[in-house]
Design goal:
It comes from Pontibacter qinzhouensis. It catalyses: L-aspartate 4-semialdehyde + phosphate + NADP(+) = 4-phospho-L-aspartate + NADPH + H(+). A hairpin with a 2-residue loop joins strand 3 and strand 4. The chain folds into 2 domains: 137 residues, Rossmann fold (3-Layer(aba) Sandwich); 181 residues, Dihydrodipicolinate Reductase, domain 2 (2-Layer Sandwich), CATH 3.30.360.10. Helix 5 runs parallel beside helix 7 and helix 5 packs across helix 10. Strands 2-1-5-6-8-7 form a 6-stranded parallel β-sheet, sandwiched between helices. A 6-stranded mixed β-sheet has the order 10-9-11-14-13-12. The chain has 329 residues and is an alpha/beta fold. The longest helix has 17 residues.
């Protein structure tokens, strides 16, 4: 099994390597791929040093699987080149997510849709992944009508340049700016570019991707995406209206039976999900579960996950594991 990690030197790329190693992914030859400026650099994997190669050399090697985390323009140009040599690409960028010919996959929800014909598979947006993992079983049993979500997203979702900006500001140092404003001791209601409808691209990703992953265009979703000066994970305040009646016990039961979800909800002991507790973990943490007292069949909850793990690297590796297990590569 020959596997390529494209964008290996980035934040998510490094996390992919960590997840591959932790999960003992069955790789015989690992290709670490990055832009020309990183070619020749050495990176560690399972105690060995591996030299970073360029994209053209990686395509020539024809790996069975390539996990991309190198940005949309790189994916748009190079994913089809890998696919042409028989490689199955799992792509972390937004390049292919809403392409009607490509599957948008969260393994716990819709991996069963994958076939041998799928050569480019899209990994959803980090904030979408954690939300749909928490809500999917609830949707199957109670049928969601409407989701109102506000996100509180880690600077790691932007990349190393944003982490550097936060740390520089905290240390009182000058440096490059990843954001148009200071992020330390501040909150930016602005993630990605603004669209004509006044929503940001990040907000529209959550709206459109949720419908596609769940194969249900009837679900109404509205989102506000916010960047906050934390690291460790994204948090979400989610209000969900269902078609069917339920009790709070039903919600806890369904969440407790949901793969990939851990309920952390004991307000008497001040136990609830926080980004620092999600950091380095693959579970989606859910807490602050309570009925919406303003309207029937509606519940509020707080959803937290490590955006570099389940929100990106772990989800991509889980897709790759599914491909191998079901002999789709």
């Amino acid at each position: 099994m020959k596997v390529a990690v494209v964008g290996a030197t980035g934040l998510v790329g490094g996390e992919i390597l960590k997840v591959l190693e932790e999960r003992n992914f069955p790789v015989d030859e690992l290709l670490l791929v990055a832009s020309e400026r990183s070619v020749g650099k050495q990176m560690a994997f399972k105690g060995k040093q591996i030299k970073v190669i360029g994209l053209q050399d990686a395509v020539a090697a024809a790996p069975q699987i390539a996990i991309f985390s190198a940005g949309g323009s790189t994916s748009t140009e190079w994913a089809p080149k890998f696919a042409e040599v028989g490689t199955v690409v799992v792509d972390n960028s937004s390049a292919w997510r809403m392409d009607p010919t490509k599957k948008l996959v969260v393994p716990e929800i819709n991996a069963k849709e994958l076939t041998k014909d799928d050569k480019i598979i899209a990994n959803p947006n980090c904030s979408t992944i954690q939300m749909v993992v928490a809500l999917n079983n609830l949707h199957q049993e109670l049928k969601m009508k409407r989701i109102v979500v506000s996100t509180y997203q880690s600077v790691t979702g932007t990349g190393k340049n944003a982490v550097d900006q936060l740390m520089n500001e905290r240390a009182g140092k000058e440096g490059d700016m990843a954001y148009p404003y200071t992020i330390d001791l501040n909150v930016l209601p602005h993630i990605d570019v603004f669209q004509d409808n006044g929503y940001t691209k990040e907000e529209m990703k959550m709206i459109l991707e949720t419908k596609k992953i769940m194969s249900d265009d009837s679900i109404r979703v509205t989102a506000t995406a916010v960047r906050i000066p934390v690291m460790g994970g994204h948090s979400e305040s989610v209000n969900v209206e269902f078609e069917k009646d339920f009790s709070l016990d039903d919600i806890y039961r369904i969440l407790g039976e949901t793969d990939g979800v851990k309920v952390v909800d004991n307000v008497k002991n001040l136990e609830y999900p926080m980004p620092k507790d999600a950091h380095g973990k693959d579970e989606v943490l859910v807490g602050r579960v309570r009925l919406d007292e303003t309207q029937p069949r509606t519940v509020n909850m707080w959803i937290v996950a490590d955006n570099l793990r389940k929100g990106a690297a772990t989800n991509a590796v889980q897709i790759a594991e599914y491909l191998i297990k079901h002999e789709l590569v």
